[in-house]
Amino acid sequence: MTFHVITLFPEVVEAYANASILGRAQKQKLLKVKTYQLRDTAGNKWGKVDERPYGGGPGMVLRAEPVIKAAEKICKGKKTKVLITSPGGKPLTNAYAKKLAKEKNVIIVCGRYEGVDARAKKVLKAEEVSTGPYVLTGGEVPALAIIDATARQTRGVLGKLESLEEGRIASHDVYTRPEVLKVKGKDYRVPKVFLTGHHAKIDAARAKKRSQG
Hints:
alpha/beta
């Protein structure tokens, strides 16, 4: 699949997408992450893409025209799903990412300032997506969260399917060597059940820990 990210800061997206697991996945041609500078479709010599909102209010709003032009340029001849990052959008979950992984082309419009002119969403039949009940300075981090969560659901991106944490009966606590960790004169030990090699008991302990939060 290919993610097409429309943003004012392509370098932010590229830095993360070209590193680590996502970078390796791209080299293996399991997915692509392409970025597009929104100012390229500003339609004016200054590259201005924002305006004050009708009705008043603080801050600026991303204009509809540059967003629509950028998305339509990408969409040409492709069946494409369009997303807009927004604090008030549909929540990003593993189930949503798994469904999104079936798409071939996904456009993510990174929101900025006070948001995107609502007419862009209507024209592009876009879906607003939120990564949590908080507000960030821009949509680049949420866009990367969407890409990362979806990439994990793509066969071959992770070394093993078992690496999908949500598919295992595991607590969030994991341990490795040494068996006894000494910090400021105090011993921190690996729970004994993890040293037994008894997988049923280990799974039960993990499940219990997870249920307890």
